[in-house]
Amino acid sequence: MPLSREEIAERLAEAGYIADDELATAIAIMQLLKRPLLLEGEAGVGKTEVAKALASACATSLIRLQCYEGLDQSAALYEWNYQRQLLAIQAHQGKDASQIEDYIFSEKYLLERPLLAAIRQDNPPVLLIDEVDRADEEFEAFLLEILSDFQVSIPELGTVRAVSIPHVVLTSNGTRELSDALRRRCLYHYVDYPDIERETRIIMARISGASATLSLQIARMVEKVRKEDLRKVPGVAETLDWAAALVGLDVSDLHDRPELVHETLMCLLKTHEDKTRMTREVTERLLGRVA
Amino acid sequence: MTDSASSAVVGPNDVPRLVSARIATFLKVLRDNAFAVGPSEGQDALTLVTSGYAARPSLLRSAFKHLFSANKADWEKFDRLFDAFWLRKHVRSRSVATGSVANSPSVQGLLSGSGKEQTSGSALMDEILTESGTDHEGAGEGRMEGASAAENLVETDFRKIADPAQMEEAHAVAAQLARAMLIRLTRRDLARRHGYTLHLRRTIHRNISHGGVPISLVKRQRKEKPLRLVVLLDASGSMSMYTGVFLRFIHGVLDTFRGAEAFLFHTRLAHISDAMRDKNPARALDRLSIMAQGAGGGTKIGESLETFNRWHVQRVLHSRSCVMIVSDGYETGDAALLGREMARLAKRCRRIVWLNPMMGWQGYMPEASGIKAALPHIDLLAPANTLRSLADLEPYLAKL
């Protein structure tokens, strides 16, 4: 039963994720058309969080496949439990070879990896394929096959068909260009930095003890910082760190403690170059423009 | 293509044929604008329309946007196309911004500057075709004096090749050379192929017939990333005699090297890999000529590198990348900025090769302000005024 967009937005909010209308639409369509959703955007805008919130909104489990260079079938799909197989071979020595083979290549010795686990659940889980751009091109092609058929063939066992079709969310940071085929297969959503209003709501939802005025000030300040010429633009995660730090230090108004604001900016700035660029004067100038 | 799309779209009976036909036409418009959409997307679009997403235009736009976009460039231009087609706002027959090149801010700048003058797509095409007919590639070749024997082509400075046929030959050799370099690089990899750690999974699998006693071993080796070549080509006025040959070289490189990327810069930086790889030659020309506007003027190497460092490095470079800058080093911008940006670039890649066509000239000293500032960060400064000098680079690249 596909949920309506409003319900989705509401449930995501309950799970701690403040979605904009477009994202809610994307998720509604994704459930309607049963297509995977590809999320792209800068690091730290909360792409992974979408999947986590979606899992909790659908009251289902989250299965995560973190991609990295050299990720292969045995780490993503399934693997045989070799140690136990070896033991079994030793234990059954003297028996018929084909019998042993049947025995050691049975479900009992199969280790499920995320992709196989995701298609064998009764209740469709959320399958998060994180940072798919880090995996090799060969893996991407293989992924495409799984995502279109939702079946896996294991030579020793036969074909495993999907019990239920999982909700697939892929994220990409753009370190490598993804293939057109994979892009076509997916719905596409570009996750941008949230606007001030949404970021304020995110801070208030996530950081208990952050007042409405402080959250608004923080959101405005971060928006100004993002416009500076920085090497690493702070994402939502950094904003939340900073908000937590300020709340922890009992700051209730940014204008009261300008020196503390400058000192805690390390939550936002992650390189030496950015640090030196953000001098006390710059901080004060930005702070002056935050109403 | 339209036929297949429309026949696929006309499926469910309760939808008036009119809507399916409109969607099919819309798909055609999207395809003309370099969206990768096919019949299955059409089918899904219809499902969306029948499931109540057509209630409000903004809702339908948002839904279609997710379905039809495949990358950020698509994402950004979709709203405009949708409005033009469905809401009849400011209809333009053909959008200029095609492909993901529109991603880079520099290109966007170029596009916004040039897009307004065009009235129709076909007029634009004619203009480009005539332009390429004269000297799109071999810029300035007609003006050069002196001829040289064909067999000496390899040794001849590109400036001195006068005959268009010879120039064509030089272009072909440049493209070939790029391919030859790749073949030799891969062979070298093959020769070194013996593993150093045990591949447990394969070993056990192979030895099941021995009762699990590992008799024949399977080893594994870390997968070697192929060398990635990123070429930054200077297309300023002072380089005009060399630009043509290097464009052909880049074409060869992009054809053969997996994941190679090419950029062109003069006063701005433009990402040209996609345009040069475009399967539709007319569109490739279209895109290239738009990006080449401003070529033949001054050079702002520093600023172009800054753009490259800021917007492209993360995606384009990895640890086994070689950046090849082809430029004479005559900087009209700030030389100090160039030095700074070179330092940043040097941190992100394995090697920086600077090819300077002028180094082949007699009595040349690297004294241009640009090259002086860049010199400390360059791993190899080589002449590149003949094909021989390009070929000489190969052993160096193989060592990376």
From TrEMBL, chain A:
CDD domains: AAA. One of its GO terms (molecular function) is ATP hydrolysis activity. It comes from the Bacteria. Residues 33-197 form the AAA+ ATPase domain. It holds the Pfam family AAA_5. This is ATPase. It comes from Pseudaminobacter soli.
From TrEMBL, chain B:
SUPFAM superfamilies: vWA-like. InterPro entries: UCP010256, Uncharacterised_CoxE, vWFA_dom_sf. This is Carbon monoxide dehydrogenase. The lineage of its organism: Bacteria, Pseudomonadati, Pseudomonadota, Alphaproteobacteria, Hyphomicrobiales.
